[in-house]
């Protein structure tokens, strides 16, 4: 009994080695209830309908530095590294998005963050990881004496459906390390094997959420949402993160498109369909050809039914063939939407580049809009931009009647959210 208690205390102490967020964490002596700030942070994120990402930064040249520094574990470099990471993350991230910054081992740093599917994208996480690495390496070079570490980064999402949040965090941490080091690790091998099985067997499930005509309250279209098989890769974030980090994103998205075409054929549906598509896939040189082959295979489906949603968080800058492929796909009859408009800084630039048929206003603009004249002014501004671009407007994330009433008085075209209907798994087809 005493041994179990001691082990429990040790585990809490290990978990409690937090560097961030210092101001929001309280420590209590282990008198009656042992608190675990990380578990509490992850649990709170899950309750708020967020995902949690575990990001690992490992030192690639650890042994080389260890030889140069002598007693590396007790060297001033370790303290410098922690301080530089903390400063960089405070600069690059919203404080409320950080759950913890933790030095599990001396050869790396682990960052845990909240991820909102409505606000964030995987490309943002990729960019964040690379940016932190670049800034930390640069800042450590400017130390006296300079230190020249080379970092690798990897990330994984904490599984929500496991009975134990702690075991889910530990599993995600091991997988993130394997991703960072790209090593032949049993955990990584298992994950890649599982993902390849998903790809080969096309084990993707579709969910659907209606998009409502605000004026008539009728269903205008359906947004198709993706889920993986039961387990670690069921939720979209882990599914797409593994796809992106293992180079199988294009294969995954093509399976999703084929599943949607199959669904439309099976139900003989003439409904309009919205589907998310990353700029990387649209810019792939094979994409127009592969989509054309799907149209030839499913001849009764019109490209005019399909709207590709391009998330505003995913930058189109530097994506080769993106603009050319966009023109080709438009000539074929497909339509395009800019998703998450208003959530980032590139909304107007993205709209001017793409000239979308649909502009989807992000939930961050819509939430509590009935209480905020500033947010309503932002909506009016986006409506003016949309009219100028010849685009329809979809307001996302409507959750109550008050928010819906603001859309009506501003003559917003379309709306989507839990107030109208939650996403549902497709079993017998799209409801009409």
Automatic annotation (TrEMBL):
Q: Where is the EAL domain?
A: 188-432
Listed Gene3D superfamilies:
EAL domain
Known PANTHER family for this protein? CYCLIC DI-GMP PHOSPHODIESTERASE PDEF, SIGNALING PROTEIN
> What name appears for this protein in its UniProt entry?
EAL domain-containing protein
What is the species listed in this Swiss-Prot or TrEMBL entry? Bacillus salipaludis
Any GO molecular function: cyclic-guanylate-specific phosphodiesterase activity
The superkingdom of the source organism is Bacteria
């Amino acid at each position: 009994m005493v041994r179990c208690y001691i082990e429990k205390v040790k585990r809490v102490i290990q978990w409690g080695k937090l560097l961030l967020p210092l101001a929001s964490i309280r420590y209590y002596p282990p008198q009656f209830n042992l608190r675990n700030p990380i578990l509490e942070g992850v649990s709170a994120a899950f309750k708020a309908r967020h995902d949690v990402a575990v990001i690992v930064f490992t030192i690639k040249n650890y042994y080389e530095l260890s030889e140069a520094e002598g007693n590396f574990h007790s060297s001033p470099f370790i303290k410098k590294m922690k301080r530089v990471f903390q400063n960089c993350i405070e600069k690059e991230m919203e404080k409320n998005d950080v759950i913890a910054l933790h030095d599990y081992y001396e050869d790396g740093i682990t960052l845990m963050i909240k991820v909102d599917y409505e606000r964030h994208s995987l490309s943002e996480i990729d960019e964040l990881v690379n940016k932190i690495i670049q800034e930390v390496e640069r800042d450590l070079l400017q130390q006296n004496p300079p230190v020249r570490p080379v970092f690798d980064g990897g990330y994984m999402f904490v599984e929500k459906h496991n009975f134990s949040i702690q075991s889910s965090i530990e599993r995600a941490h091991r997988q993130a390390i394997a991703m960072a080091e790209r090593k032949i690790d049993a955990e990584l091998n298992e994950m890649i094997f599982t993902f390849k099985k998903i790809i080969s067997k096309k084990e993707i499930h579709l969910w659907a959420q209606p998009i409502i005509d605000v004026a008539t309250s009728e269903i205008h279209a359906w947004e198709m949402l993706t889920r993986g098989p039961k387990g670690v890769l069921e939720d979209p974030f882990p599914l797409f993160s593994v796809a992106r980090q293992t180079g199988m994103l294009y294969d995954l998205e093509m399976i999703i498109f084929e599943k949607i075409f199959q669904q439309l054929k099976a139900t003989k549906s003439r409904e309009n369909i919205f589907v998310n598509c990353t700029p990387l896939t649209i810019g792939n040189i094979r994409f127009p050809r592969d989509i054309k082959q799907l149209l030839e295979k499913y001849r009764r489906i019109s490209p005019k039914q399909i709207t590709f949603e391009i998330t505003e968080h995913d930058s189109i800058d530097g994506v080769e063939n993106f603009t050319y492929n966009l023109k080709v796909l438009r000539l074929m009859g497909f339509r395009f939407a800019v998703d998450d408009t208003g959530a980032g800084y590139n909304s107007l630039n993205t709209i001017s580049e793409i000239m979308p048929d649909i502009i989807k206003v992000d939930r961050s603009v819509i939430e509590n809009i009935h209480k905020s004249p500033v947010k309503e002014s932002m909506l009016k501004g986006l409506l003016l931009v949309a009219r100028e671009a010849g685009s329809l407007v979809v307001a996302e994330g409507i959750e109550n009647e008050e928010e819906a009433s603001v859309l009506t008085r501003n003559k917003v075209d379309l709306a989507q959210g839990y107030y109208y209907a939650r996403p549902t798994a497709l079993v017998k087809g799209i409801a009409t």
